Amino acid sequence: MATQQSRPRIGVLVLSPDFVKPFRLFHFRRKEMESQEVKYVGVDCGKKSIEVVRINSENSLERRQFSTTESGINNLLQWLTLNDIVGLEAGSQSFRIAKSILNKGVQVIVLNPGNLATIYQSLKKTDKEDSLKIARLIQRHPIEELPTVPIPNDEEEDNRRLCSEHENWTKQLTQGKNRLHSLFTQAGLTQITKNTYEQKQIEKSL
After folding, report:
1. Which residue range or ranges hold the Transposase IS110-like N-terminal domain (predicted)?
2. Is the pTM of this model over 0.85?
3. Which of the two residues, 193 and 88, has the higher pLDDT score?
4. pLDDT in tens, 105-138
5. Annotated domain spans of the chain
6. In terms of CATH architecture, what is 38-151?
7. Which of 100, 103, 107 has its CA nearest to residue 85?
8. How far is CA 116 from CA 43, 89, 122, 162, in A?
9. With b meaning 16 or more CB within 10 Å and e meaning fewer, what string describes 103-136?
10. Residue 146: burial class (beta carbons within 10 Å; 0-12, 13-18, 19+)
């Protein structure tokens, strides 16, 4: 009697409605995110205003201007989307703005302006053009090829601020001493040197 070969069993997978609904929602959201293309945003930070240009997927441009106040930066954050990649040059306000953008979950690239100077040399210098140049730069070059600056944490930023203040006051002190030396020399008080600029030493010299 010939042995009968076993056939593969064909079964039916039955999914409960409670599983199908969230699965379909997840699948739809994933497809929606994949269909959305990355947009590139260049930011130029001034003292009182922020000039912004976004390059859309069809290469059309969106221009915006925001103030550097807290409300202005909040408006910038509301305007940005999770599909944006933001680029800006390192500067006095850049790190504060970059941290706010990062906290929203948007990718941000801080660029070293010293290394970008040669790239911008032949282009006209205006704020709006700078923001567009930055947007073009991060659009055309991978981040590995860009001269980036790491965003400091709060402690590092405090240390930088203290060092900057120390350097500023040291420079002002040196300028003050040079000014006094010039005045004393003009008045014929040549016995007073830069090493005798403490108040008590000046009084003794006089």
Report:
1. 41-186
2. no
3. 88
4. 999 999 998 887 766 654 545 545 789 989 988 9
5. 38-151, 155-205
6. 2-Layer Sandwich (3.30)
7. 107
8. 14, 9, 12, 27
9. eeebbbbbbebeebeeebeeeeeeeebbbbbbbb
10. middle
